[in-house]
Amino acid sequence: MKKNTFLFLFFLPFLLLGQEAISLSESRVFVYDKYKPLKNKPIKVWYYTPKKVKTDSPVLLVMHGNSRKAEAYRDALIPTAIEYGFILIVPEFSKTYYPKIRDYHHGGIFNDSKILKEEQDWTFSIIEPLFNEIKSLWNNTSEGYFLYGFSAGAQFVHRYMYMKPQNRARKIVAASAGTYTMPDFENDYSYGLKNVPLPAHSLKHFYNKDYTVCVGTADTVLARTDLAKSKKANQQGRDRVERAQKFFNLSRRKAKDLNLDFKWQYKEVTGVGHSQVDIAQHIGALFF
User: Fold this and answer.
1) Do 193 and 181 meet the contact criterion of CB atoms below 8 Å apart?
2) Which helix (H) or strand (E) holds 79?
3) What is the DSSP string of 5-32?
4) Pairing mode, if any, of strands 169-175 and 210-216?
């Protein structure tokens, strides 16, 4: 073996490690399986880090829709990440490991027999450990994260806020959800809160968050097959606009009845239908 060849092979592992470190400033993906209770259900994490990112740069976690196309969600927000200098993180909850609506949209708190699972086994429970991993990988000093969800992701996000009230989300935008868990205890989860062990002071923490209910004004197409049309869904409104309005208004009324601070906002994006790409163009303004 020639001397130069030997030196190259010797230093190759170190060169590859250097490339992995550099990759954190690019548009890439890694597999996260360090949360032990869900280790058998690993998630891909698609990310993008602008070159001007700092140790205290914001972290934006994005929850994708029912398509589970996390890469496309990341790509749609790369220009915004560049403009505002935040670390963009999009975990992918694949249909391989999280196949059903209850597994993803509803946070995985019930099993297939509709029996409540241990909290550590909820899909919701992976978010905070994932944030810790992001902080470690990027040496990020942020005390909290920004959280955005679209469509099924918005369903996940607002239910996450109910069920994990001690979360570190600092600012939240939930856009274009198809159905909502309304703040009532007459209907079972996922339309209401009747049959779930809602943590103490959950509503207090939720209503006190910087939370935006968002929907496009043109998200009213009833022919869409991805719009739930069950009796309970239609009781929330005929389309996503009516349902978003009802969720916001009922939540504001509930906060008033309970004498709780209410810091939410309601935002309609003019002319936009059910399109994550179109909504993504407004995320920078909504967060920053």
Assistant:
1) yes
2) helix 70-84
3) HHHHHHHHHHHHHHHHHHHTTSEEEEEE
4) parallel
Which of 102, 121, 161 is closest to 39 using CA atoms? Answer: 121
What are phi and psi for residue 169, nearest 5 degrees? -65, 125
Q: What is the pTM of this model?
A: 0.91
Instruction: Kindly write down the DSSP assignment for every residue of 91-155, as one continuous string.
Output: EE--TTTS-STTTTTTTT-B-TTSPBPPGGGSGGGGHHHHHHHHHHHHT---SSEEEEEETHHHH
161 touches 211 (CB < 8 A): yes
- Give how far Cα 163 sits from Cα of 38, 45, 122, 206, 241, Å: 18, 23, 10, 10, 24
Nearest to 157 by CA among 175, 145, 144, 139: 175
Closest CA to 280 of 126, 110, 69: 69
CA distance 196 to 114: 11
161 has pLDDT over 50: yes
142-158 per-position pLDDT tens digit:
999 999 999 999 999 99
- Write out the two tokens for 6: 């030997």
Check: CB of residue 73 under 8 Å from CB of residue 276.
Answer: yes
Cβ proximity of 73 and 27 under 8 Å: no
Six token digits for residue 107: 């946070």
Residue 17: its pLDDT value, please? 34
| Cα 273 from Cα 196, distance rounded (Å) | 32
- The predicted pLDDT at position 15 comes to 35
